[in-house]
């Protein structure tokens, strides 16, 4: 029996990306009012709160919030941007719940590219305007309104994925290890991975590298997960492409003072041409469509030769737990999905043979043929110049990251092909270590769900007094502090008085510097230039200026101590100078947040839906099915070796409680397009 509407709590997460901001409204049962209703449902009690979201509870607007940083027109942020989103939320959430609903505005992508000071001004205006114009809850700006980094996004994605896959359901606190699904995300500028090592030995060996993520079940017991998360800046699809073209320019100029008019590009289809700017000069590239050369040329970009502090080494000198693909399972989103699904119709279950052959055929095709196929709708109606010219490179880059970067074995290359041919054997015994997806069981796979899951979980009262706080305990090597309630990183954020204080202190510093110059000229001049010094001593500083100097110096104790230490150079010559006492101050401030790494999405429309009318239909639960109910989790139970088969078919994730049944769905479908279970 569903609880009455007034027994629900609501939460809002706004994903402010490079191309726009999208608001997501979520709701869940108020555990303080509904726990007694479920006292006999053990499966529900030992699971985190069930999050619900209606597809109509989402809205996006463009352009991205970072555009206000470029125009410096911060006062338009509320009327032109967030006012529309918050009005939308007010129409979705019951009026009696608005004053209790928290808002989280988390910026990604474009905001990371802006200077830190500009970010702070945007976030300050965002936070203050939401507080001023709405009744929603924004308790602490630094947590609720911030720019998150790639690692934070990776953890949120891991939480969302495993929640939808049902891995947090029926959590057994007596077990040491729990199964989970690894999360891979590739944007335009960087790529991330987040996963739990599959053995206790690996967890113990890499304890310093792991973050502890905690959730709370409905009954108040705590879940603890040891998660490895890492991000590689510059290893996203677009940045890798840029580095690749720069590499071609460098190679083409070897042995010659000039680069040829056209640089041959093996990763560009035959006859296609592109222009790339490098060091202020434009270079032209002509496609030669050589798949093998393309793949070999891309490999050095992984920087596998860069040494690690310890083994095992992933790539670019990053150390981490070894990925055991005989047991580990991974889902890749963003570029892993878009390249495979939109162009090669191979989204979902990854099959190296099938995908490799499709990529080879595309890369070695004539550009005119690709354009003809595009007009026929073969490539999801993507813009040829914007997406299709880079498709060969991106597909090769995805495979290089998977197989060379993360050591995913290739069938019949790195592992033996056992040759099972019957459909039954193929279905029941094949373990699939990697799949690409943009949704799970019909629910969008968005990191915003991971954020709200921690928010909802943190509101449950602990069953025991010594239970750990809900949130993330960062790895020891990260140097970060624990942040409760689902906030992973302090990021770049607005402090209530930080900007005003900065500007005031700039004025203070300027005055102090000028007065110090007068001070040194006066004292050293008197010692070495008697006559000139005598004239200087006759000069009297106006009393208001002296008072301003006193006030400024009191803010900077080191100046006071320095002057007293050097008074031996001469006495003050007048009573006014004698009265210029420099008092000890109490100002000590540091503000040194590094600007976060960019994680750009490959396409502007990722996770951004058009405005939708709000309906009265009941929201669809995005809670994963509890054990014993229908689900989509065949991912978890196939043996590792994948025999060759028709790559036009993949398997829909099957039942959580049964590891034996799988359902086929078309390969160009998402990971799961079935109706969500409530």
Automatic annotation (TrEMBL):
GO terms for cellular component: Golgi membrane
Enzyme Commission number, as recorded: 3.6.1.42
Residues where ATP binds: 188-192
Keyword terms: ATP-binding, Hydrolase, Membrane, Nucleotide-binding, Transmembrane, Transmembrane helix
Region of interest (Disordered), residue spans: 654-678
Pfam families hit by this protein: GDA1_CD39
GO biological process: CTP metabolic process; UDP catabolic process
Residues that span the membrane, as ranges: 507-525
Protein family: Belongs to the GDA1/CD39 NTPase family.
Protein name from the UniProt record: Yeast Nucleoside Diphosphatase
Taxonomic source organism: Scheffersomyces stipitis (strain ATCC 58785 / CBS 6054 / NBRC 10063 / NRRL Y-11545)
